[in-house]
Amino acid sequence: QAVVDFERLGEHAAAFQGHDVGFCCLGTTRAKAGADGFVRVDRDYVAQAAELARAGGCKHFVLQSSRGANPQSRFLYLRVKGEVENLVEAVGFDHCTILRPAVLLCKRQESRPMEWIAQQFLGAVARLFPAAYSVPVETVAKAMVACALQPGEGKVKVLENRAVHELGKA
Fold this sequence. Notes:
- With 170 residues, the chain is α/β, with parallel strands linked by helices.
- It has one domain (17-169): NAD(P)-binding Rossmann-like Domain (Rossmann fold).
- Helix content is 46%, strand content 15%.
- It is built from 5 helices and 6 strands, in the order βαβαββαβαβα.
- The protein has helices at residues 30-55, 76-90, 113-128, 137-149, 161-169, and strands at 21-24, 60-64, 95-100, 103-105, 134-136, 156-160.
- The strands form 2 sheets. Strands 1-2-3-6 form a 4-stranded parallel sheet, sandwiched between helices. A two-stranded parallel ribbon has the order 4-5.
- Helix 1 (30-55) links the parallel strand 1 and strand 2 (60-64).
- Helix 4 packs across helix 5 (161-169).
- It is globular.
- Residues 4-151 form the NAD(P)-binding domain.
- One of its GO terms (biological process) is import into nucleus.
């Protein structure tokens, strides 16, 4: 495990060398970082980490993105997620897997009241429609590992929420 300063990520290139697979779940919230900070973390840091990983020999990059990611979206969150998907794809990995989970169901240390309310509601909905609107973070993690173990055909693979559920349960 290496601790890096994301503001000086280029100085930590050695931490990105010698790995066959890279996993990226990096992200913040607009509320926590502001709009500019959100873009810097969710797009710029991720893209730079992908470039360093590729330069260090990484062959397969597995990126956690978001349902609805679209570089043309009017919504900042979805637009940034779409932009970073395009940037990561452009790096030129042998394999690039992008997971687009819906709302992540997890326990957080910090207080996010609106997210907590949404999780309570979506957790109840998930009992009836497990893959419709949410996904447990453990399922996403298992799906990411499965992607690394069996990258499949093609250079870029995008897995929507239902596919994340299926792969994470397999």
